[in-house]
Amino acid sequence: MSKRSLFAVAAVLCVVAVVRFSGVLKSPYIAEAGGPTMGTSWSAKYVAVDTPEPEVQDAIAEALEAVNVRMSTYRKDSELMELNRAPVGQPYSVSEQLFRLVEQGQTISELSDGAYDITVGALVNLWGFGRGKGATENLPENLDAASEQAFSKWLEKGRVSQIPTATDIDQAKQKVGYRSLILDRKNRTITKEKPVFIDLSSIAKGYGVDEAALAIEALGIDSYMLEVGGEIRLRGVKPDGESWKIAVREPVLESKVNTIVSMDNKGIATSGDYLQYIEVDGVHYSHLIDARTGYPEKHRLASVAVINDDTGLADAWATAFMILGEKAGPRVADKAGVDALFIYHTDKGFQSMGTGKFSSYIVGK
Length: 365
Known about the structure:
9 helices; flavoprotein; T-fold; metal-binding; FAD:protein FMN transferase; 365 residues; ApbE-like_sf; FAD
């Protein structure tokens, strides 16, 4: 065969190869997904190549629904609510997922000297931040624009119109206490020594982020930004090689950017007293209840951001630090080796301080 013929054959083979494998040569792009979950919403941005977008949407939604079925206090049939209804003094078998979150909550309770307490549900409900007196029916499965007004009315059923009395608070505190939960890791059981109401809302959203991340990683996606109700997980880089970045904002409604951070394969959670609160007779009461006193936290700390390998732990620590305040919070964070950013009120506006390696994640202001 002549050289000219050989070149012609080679050219044809190259064309066939390009056509045959053209699907592999697609350029990566950023796709988006989102939807309602846990009484709030979730969103995702991820680098896609050939994974069908509906498949990613469904994978995340299913992972979050699985968490909701286990951890929700707004669903009568959730595993957590079944545990809350279980008889006092009898070991109750739970799933590995629920056991793990309760176990993590107990650890943070010990490290925070009881400021953080997943059994604080009775006090949260008393102050009107939980299921409330009127929340007897299940939360609507799908929340959309058409149901927002009805959902708002549903939430308001449990809101208090006056501050609980000291007697009411003392009575509720009798049903609070993380040490009244006995965990048996070997048999995976939880025993309540008194009728506590366990509330995992301070850790479940972060845990949901991690579960959703595992779901899309199973589809081959290794670069994404996942968010559930403000708790976020970042991994990988964008198609242009840039890292994902998020802003930690000052706790004012004008959303002024305070600090920009970036990290890889870690979660970040924030907690603050500026969006969830009640106001009675002109007094502002935070939704974060100190289980030790029975009253909402009250100090100069405005918000806390925590970065951790485990987004659920970041979620829980952020709540714990808000309750501890601007003095005890950083002290506990340093002792526990937690990477956190504390933003607090001063006479000259907001100031911030970081603990652990938080400053290493800061990439701009």
